[in-house]
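Lecture 7 notes: from sequence to structure.
We start with the chain below.
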Amino acid sequence: MSKEDKFFESLREFAGDAAQAGAAMNDTAEGRKDPSEGYREAAAMKRNCRDTFGRLTEKMYKAYKNPSELDAVRGIISKIYHSADILKDVLSHMDIVEVGEPPEELSLMARLVSASLEEMKKTLDYTVDVEDNYMKMEARCRRIYTYEERGDECYRQIMKKLYGGEEDVKYLIYWKEIFDQLEEVLDSIAGMVPLLQKIVTHY
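Predicted structure tokens for the same chain:
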């Protein structure tokens, strides 16, 4: 197994844990899990990512020497880790504090986040054989961009509703922060796509 293969093997594990954190967020938003259960699952996935981080970084430096490629790989790792960390924080917030009924847009935003992370995981699963799967990887990357665009529109809608409604300030601040964070996950995963494309074209 080449050094690049070993790196991508660990990266696939890393991405799988982040995708499970996304699934916990979606299940919580849809009411299939209560916030405490969702938080415990996301926190466990974040710990897994943290435990994998060191090994992944070590393999990264063995596999890549070109500074441009190293920057791209570091960016991918950082964005995946950041996404898992944000989801843990969102679910922690929802577990600790309850502020009114969740806006109906929460289900859509959480679904988009989960779908984006799952597409990222499946895209990286194809790195087992990039040459045979490159077009499939490109198709999944396009889906990630689509989810980000839908998330941007959902975010705009909820901001109009929050600022144009009659909810109290506490409700507005609480839910704005959560939607800000979920949008950040979508942006982070979409931002990973060009970095991954840069790496796999040389893989």
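Points to note: The chain has six helices and no strands. The mean pLDDT is 93.
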